[in-house]
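Hi L., both proteins are below.
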Amino acid sequence: MNSNNPNSQSDAQATWKRLFTGDLMIYSIILNLGILLFAVDTFVITTIMPTVIVDIGGTQLYAWPVMIFMVGAIVGAAATGPVRANFGRRNGYVFAGVLFLIGNLGAAYAPNIEMLIAWRLLQGLGGGLIISQSYGLIGDFYPPELRTRILSIVSTTWGVATVFGPAFGGIFAEFGSWRGAFWAIVPLAIIFCGLVWRHVAHSPVDKSGGMVVNFPITRLLLFALGILCVGLTSQTDNNVYRVSLIVAAIAMVAYAMIRDAKSSNRMFPKNTLILNTTVGSSYWFLLMFTFTFIVAILYATLYLQILHHQTPIAAAYISAVLSFTWTIGALLTASWKGPAVKLAVLGGGVLIVLGAIGLTLFAVKGPLVLIILSLSSMGFGIGTSNNHVIALTIECAEKGEEGLVASSVQTMRTMGLAFGSAMAGLLANIAGLSEGTGPETVARAVDLLNRWDIGLAALTLLSLLVFYYNYNRDKRLG
């Protein structure tokens, strides 16, 4: 536990009230506001893009404002450690907010699609830094007994953004004022920066023999190019090109992480992705459940409309059942302790597998109620296991790395989304979806995706078993 933590006194009483009283109240507000900014900005763009194209053109670059934001977010999240070392905790957090704010202002004024893409990259960099440092606050300031509860509040914030983000953008799109969607976020970003500056304690800059720690330019470029390769898979229907891009992306990201492990100014904590360690196995879980989640959900609204004749809005909300139950699972199990934590973690993994099996059996032929139950099983399983795994991982972090371990969580999730989306697109393309969205083609693609997803869900459960074994070994808990 960070010695500067104002709440590190011996107080084992874990209540929801403690999150919103005393010194923790302002941290709870700040970190959830930061996550809300990132989440809403992520969902808004998909809603307003048709209006954007009508206004400033650029149909051939339609996917790029979404894709480049994710590239920036991953690079920004990965750069959190060096940014905090160079600027300190408070200044690094404000720096992230300012980047995000400038990116929003630039996007609001963008005269063409190329400039919008450039400003979206800056938004993504700032957003990645914001959300990663928001998770970092959990490791820095929240005592172990409260971490699953604050992570459950964070899950709720994500759930709210999932529901209201598209509607928020839709209001501005309805009136043909897509720029207003970016303008509306600006006041929240200013409030966020002000709250951080006033209330987040400053930590000293790590000078380590120089003015600042050397910034990891090469590693960040490798990450950026790797994730960009993943994004480019959506721009081609050639499976050979797609496979080549995915392989190149994996190679560049892996090389960046190898270099990072040997560096004195690491972007990731020790033992990242080393399977026989608590931190490493937990990160594998984050990657695997994100793969499972995105493969299950990416084409859900499509097959619900084509195969089950749901309206677009009904399909969207049925798909969102996974997010709703994720939040419910996180909230219901947030106060579990002792043996109940093992049930939440491993039982959650079993529910994820059952959800994947259910989708394989029912996604194509129905009935609709069993599709909903399968999505609910997967979402509830993620919700019950995810936050406990993160909290236990922070608990096992080496002294001084609690914030870095927590802040790396979102990097792993976002990488999982990027690679999982590319894999899902490749599988759907192999099944013939690029040739059209007729019922037979959609059914074939969905069946292939869900069969693969059973394997991914099984690997998710396996990673949880390995994680729990590593945790018990390290902490000597039953």
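That was the first. Here is the second:
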Amino acid sequence: MFKKILIANRGEIAVRIIRACRELGIATVALYSEVDRAALHVRNADEAYAIGPAPATESYLRIDKVLEVAKRSGADAIHPGYGFLSENSMFAQACTDAGTKFVGPTAKSMNIMGSKTRARQQMEKVGVPFVPGTSRGIVSAEEGEEVSERVGYPVMLKAAAGGGGKGMRLVHSRDELRSAIESAQSEAERSFGDREVYIEKAILNPRHIEMQVLADECGNTVWLGERECSIQRRHQKVLEEAPSPIVDPDMRRRMGEVAVKVAQASNYTNAGTIEFLVDEKKNFYFLEMNTRLQVEHPVTELVTGLDLVHLQIRIAAGEKLPFTQADVGIRGHAIECRIYAEDPDNNYFPSPGKINVLVQPSGPGIREDGGVYEGWTVPIDYDPLLSKLIGYGADRAQAIMHLERALGEYFVGGIKTNLSLFTRILKDADFRDGKLDTGFLDRLTQKEDAGASGLASAKNSELETVAAISAGVFAALDRNVSASENASVNGGTNAASDSQWKREARKESLRF
């Protein structure tokens, strides 16, 4: 087993890995940029080293600096977490060349699966089902038109080196295609330094379901069940759950067997995720492979009882998987919410700043993987993920119940967060019925907008009614005040006080 691991990351995933290392009796080394000097992962690690200015390109993405710290600290392994260098094959190879174990797959496996077109080419060889389209980047608009006519519109343009929706365009007709190709290629080059774009038949209203796999370095590969990741905004996952509401045991087994086939086709080792698109008839198609630990790994841990970070480290240390496929079972249900520092009322723009108050939920059926603390200033320089809130229960209904209660307990003061979004999602009837696809959030927003219009209309009607009643009250009060004043002139003993009471009542009605 390793004696010391360097975590080449920050935030909640760095904290998660540090905790796993501590449980395994392994010393930890943290890295930090100038703005992360007081970050939680720095506080929790056994050692911490400055690595550069705030921009990731000058700190967390600097392979040379990361390896220099590994050498200085005596770390014998590096865990990349997710994001940053986690899927960088050059980094994986540089770790190997420096004699430091990379906790993840080999550079060769990454190269095969890191490009979507290369991955599709590899999957063609082993008979894995994937969405009809090209397995190589298109070389001209004419080729794009020919392919699109063959597979049928609508089609999806995708960047071969892409992710997160960058370089992706939905095209409904031939008239849109040429400009969409130019736009997708341009964005792909800006985002990934690679203009390669390929074409897939667009599957309308798909579900996004992924399968977790683990492979040791002794030739054993297993699948650990699926995660439903259909609730997305701008192609970024927002809420994930395990198991999927639509996957039955037979479908799970078939998806798992395909996932294992994908991993074995690239000689994959360590933790990986095979992503599928699923159509309305429950046909599933290979989409891509993520060659790293996923943000949503906690839901798989909760329903399988396995610690994926522990297993990653043990596999990297050369240990054999301690179980077989027959030992893997799915128990209960788990749902994860990604809590971001972002403003729901301002198009979900990042909301950096100081956390003045932090109340984190706990109690039965709740897990919270956080990376911040009260008094910490959330920087603008990185992904604004604060924590992951996970609800677990014996079934989906109980998981939702635990999560709703926990969201009510969660409070972050000083910055904006997306906590309210999850309350709205969990209360939605379609969500509760498991009627999910990648367009779910758009439909939810449309329903809320329509509801808001209805409420505004009802409010206007209510205000008109109040105005009419008030006008009548004011008129009556004016008449009564005049009558009282006349009575006062004629010597009425209680007239002055009665008149004063009515004037005060009028003020109150105006204030209302």
